[in-house]
Model the fold of this input.
Amino acid sequence: MKWIRTRITFEAEDPGVAADIIADMFCDLGLQGVIVETGSRDPDLDWAGEAVAAPEKNAVIGFFPDDDRLGQNRLELEKRLSRLRPGLLLEYKIHSSGIEEQDWAESWKQHFHPVRITDRLTVKPTWREYAGGKDEIIIELDPGMAFGTGTHPTTALCLRLMQRHMKPGFRVLDIGTGSGILMVAAAKLGAAEVCGTDCDPVAINVAEQNLRLNSVKESFFSLNTGNLAESVTGTWNLVTANILTSTIVPMIPDIPRLLEGEGIFIASGILASSRKEIKAAIRESGLEILEILREEDWIGVVSIKTMAF
Done:
């Protein structure tokens, strides 16, 4: 199959927010992941000795399949971008070029490097060399066509909050698992069992490959294709959801039934501007908020099911 590499370069007053919104546009049109290039870097991120120069222009890159949907996807993308111009984008340009499947599969890998997420956790792409420290936990990852590399603030927030709040022996459920990165992290942090669910069968296949790549035994994990929280039964000590606010909010009423005892819920993928909305939804469900952590324009929220529930 041939793919169309679509690169949107832009100028904006807040490049981070603009990039995230443009990335969401691609995802709404069926893409499972994009490449984001911005001139800003978090100085606290450790790029494991393989740092690359910051790009000269802000850009978001997506790959559309060259099929009968291509024309409509292009029109819809242009329409949505034009709506952003008055309030957010100062200027943008769309550059398209054809690329063969084997080249597409490799082209984005140059943007993905080992990243030190916490004092213990490092995410390493399978095609990079990296020797970790004595107590360092290395997550080997090949995200394929699924979202979740650890470099995006929402995934990093989840990993940091998991390390803080997860205890060895926890049974962990990851809703919208994507690449399976949070499942792998939970396993390496001492979980007794991990389960992941995603509405995309491609993501389920990628997550399974990454779990096996990290030597997580088949008897230790399970994966389900379904409508996120609705497809899950049983109870868990920790539930994670690194997905968009618009998806998290409607499913929050289902979370308490999934939590065992004083179980913990970690939600990320939430823009800081949606802080009030997510807090209200969590409290209305009967959960108690323990912590809110912010990185760039994103927040992660930790809540707990109280015994009084």
